[in-house]
Amino acid sequence: MRTKLKITEGIFPMPVLMVATYNEDGSVNVMNAAWGTMQERDTVALNLTETHKTVQNIKARGAFTVSIADAAHMVEADYFGVESGNKVGDKFARSGLTASKAEAVDAPVINEFPICLECKFIEYQNNEYGCGVIGKVVNVTADESVMVDGKIDMSKVNAIAFDPYTHGYYKVTERVGEAFHDGLKLKK
């Protein structure tokens, strides 16, 4: 038997993405965005409205970064989602986190988050099925603490995911299989 649920953004897990930009005065702005994905291997799509300070900054600077939030910084990541850059100019400073300039784009890298995608702004889309920022990934960096033999070890990233049904965060830490391999056992 199945239980009928309220319609919501019900795909789980949803990413907890930290989208960082520079404000007009050069200060750092970060927002929490769960509605984001890869469109292509090097193309990010973020479902964000133009009312977000982040979108205004992306359009003005032509760049942004997307970092993967981790369990160690869940409180800060959540803060970036509950406080608006339109209302609080020093939102990033209040978090206690630090930032560096990205190598390839005019946007900040949040040092404490383990993985960062540096993106050039491609376009803003707005139609009856949604709206959002499209960006081309031009550089990806990872903190040395999450690397093993030159590759990212996702169990060390300790990424968090958003649960849209109960509004909780969950750690994504354990590898349970090998993609494009384990299913071959059922192939005839």
Q: Structural class, from helix and strand content?
A: mainly beta
Coarse morphology? globular
Topology pattern, helix = H, strand = E: EEEEEHEHHEEEEEEHEE
> What percent of residues are in strands?
35-45%
Percent in helix: 10-25%
User: How many β-strand stretches?
Assistant: 14
| Radius of gyration over C-alpha positions, nearest whole angstrom | 17 Å
How are strands sequenced across the largest beta sheet? 3-2-6-9-10-5-4
How far is it from the N-terminal to the C-terminal residue, by CA? 32 Å
Q: What's the mean pLDDT score?
A: 93
Cofactor: FMN
Domain Flavin reductase like: 9-149
Organism: Flintibacter faecis
GO molecular function, one term: oxidoreductase activity, acting on the CH-NH group of donors, NAD or NADP as acceptor
Task: List strands and helices in order, with pairings.
Layout: E1 14-15, E2 17-22, E3 28-33, E4 36-40, E5 43-46, H1 53-61, E6 63-68, H2 74-82, H3 91-95, E7 99-101, E8 108-110, E9 115-127, E10 130-142, E11 147-148, E12 151-152, H4 154-157, E13 159-163, E14 168-172
Antiparallel strand pairs: 1-13, 2-3, 2-6, 4-5, 5-10, 6-9, 7-8, 9-10, 11-12, 13-14
Keywords: Flavoprotein
Family: Belongs to the flavoredoxin family.
Organism: Flintibacter faecis
